[in-house]
Amino acid sequence: DGGITQSPKYLFRKEGQNVTLSCEQNLNHDAMYWYRQDPGQGLRLIYYSQIVNDFQKGDIAEGYSVSREKKESFPLTVTSAQKNPTAFYLCASSIAWSDYEKLFFGSGTQLSVL
Amino acid sequence: AQTVTQSQPEMSVQEAETVTLSCTYDTSESDYYLFWYKQPPSRQMILVIRQEAYKQQNATENRFSVNFQKAAKSFSLKISDSQLGDAAMYFCAYRRGYGGSQGNLIFGKGTKLSVKP
């Protein structure tokens, strides 16, 4: 079955540590996105990529980094510069440049600070 | 900057009844899209319904329909014949039309819907 796989489901970070969240899709989608969700809040866009080897900052990119070396993979690194990393992280994908195509979401990763 | 406001943090409905969730937005653009997403306890986001701003006709998807009032910048979701499986967080979202990436959504803070048996 086609879909988006996020791993791990739960992740713990120590102070000063970088951690990487995985996002893999087998939908052959061009575009991929990372969102952050805090309790009682909607989703906020961190980074997005419309094509391999290219990505843009979203609304809250500070303290995060991404790469897009393969079409199916879009990992997110939460760096030590992100002072409040505890949140639920959602990855999504879509066919780029198509107004009528919907976003597909993964099941998310809950990141907590030890 | 565009904003999306959901003024009802929580709502409750009796099974088989109808409930309406409110959403207002602020934008100076004329071309945009509006969405309602559902987030059940599994926390996976599911698209419920989508409305293109240039369409006057309100979108419908089975038991879900919207009341899109462009001049008032209002976009409410009506759920008819509510079912226990409708219990979830519901998020209203906005996206620019021309030049807007599909994933560049601006979300409201959500409305938690409870369904009573």
| SSE topology string of chain A | EEEEEEEEEEE
The rough form of chain A would be described as globular
User: Beta-strand percentage of chain B?
Assistant: over 45%
- Tell me, rounded to a whole number, the average pLDDT of chain B: 92
E-strand count of chain A: 11
User: How much is the radius of gyration of chain B in Å?
Assistant: 14 Å
- Number of helices in the DSSP assignment of chain B: 0
First-to-last CA distance of chain A: 35 Å
Oligomer: heterodimer
What is the overall silhouette of chain B? globular
Q: Can you tell me the residue ranges of chain B where pLDDT is under 50 for at least 5 consecutive residues? A: none
Total count of strands of chain B: 12
C-alpha termini separation of chain B: 41 Å
Helix amount of chain B, in percent? under 10%
Helix tally of chain A equals 0
Helix amount of chain A? under 10%
Question: What is the structure about, briefly put?
Answer:
The complex is a heterodimer of chains A (114) and B (117). With 114 residues, chain A is mainly beta.
Describe the structure.
- The complex is a heterodimer of chains A (114) and B (117).
- Chain A is mostly beta strands and 114 residues long.
- Chain A is 0% helix and 49% strand.
- In chain A, strands 2, 4, 5, 6, 9, 10 and 11 form a 7-stranded mixed β-sheet that branches. In chain A, strands 1-3-8-7 form a 4-stranded antiparallel β-sheet, with no helix packed on it.
- The radius of gyration of chain A is 13 Å and the shape is globular.
- The N and C termini of chain A lie far apart (35 Å).
- With 117 residues, chain B is an all-beta fold.
- In chain B, a hairpin with an 8-residue loop joins strand 10 (88-96) and strand 11 (105-107).
- At the A-B interface, strand 5 and strand 9 of A face strand 6 of B.
